[in-house]
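Methods — Computational structure assignment.
A single polypeptide chain was analysed. Its primary sequence is given first, followed by the predicted tertiary structure written as structure tokens.
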Amino acid sequence: MGAVDCHCHLAAPEFQEDIEDVLEEAKQAKVLALVVVAEHSGEFGRIMQLSERHPGFVFSCLGVHPVQRTPTGQERSVTLKDLDEALPLIELHKDCLLAIGEVGLDFTPRFASTDEQKEEQRRVLIKQIQLAKELHLPLNVHSRSAGRPTINLLKEQGAERVLLHAFDGKPSVAMEGVKAGYFFSIPPSITRSEQEKLVKHLPLESICLETDSPALGPEKQVRNEPKNIFFAAEYIAKIKGISLEEVIDVTTQNALKLFPKLKNFLCK
């Protein structure tokens, strides 16, 4: 049985030297599919090339993240200009996309300290929710320090197929997302984080697996890879007192519900 990594960053510089080895090790570990997300338009080309080189295994999501990196390596809150630069490229590749992502809100004070910055993040997210609806695509969503505002905005805008990745909000807030039919993906860092309560509260039917590679691995400050997805599955099984097989089976079925295009490749 295999697992689906519903959220990873394989266009990241950390994978530049050995991406083919990383993909091969993921296949050997029985990872069925990799859902690769973008943070900014500069990554779009690399993501599309990866999915073209590995059809049926690497699936591309294009979108603009709420935190953007400047040429000097500084991080700042997203602007509508960032999105405007990305939209023509998303349009160009729209027929090949599995989802729009990574999109969302990030109200971490060092990135969004003013109401104006938060409002601009909301506008960028609203435009990408509308785009996903027009293209009939799911959303792959970031919500750091903004769990409730993100879920509220998604609901207000009528977003339907939604994955909230590495959710750091309260379980009670997550349950609002569950009621709306949203899914939550759990990374390998669950083995060392304080999100055990979240996994306890979430029904298995609302959980997917992710790695967020190269971040959120089982070991802090060690590059994470898609092959590590089974750390998350094992921990979920332990917390819920069920078998690893059940976790992998149900989370894979959840991924197929969330990303219908996967069915064309994984259900043959």
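Note: Residues 115-135 form the longest helix (21 residues).
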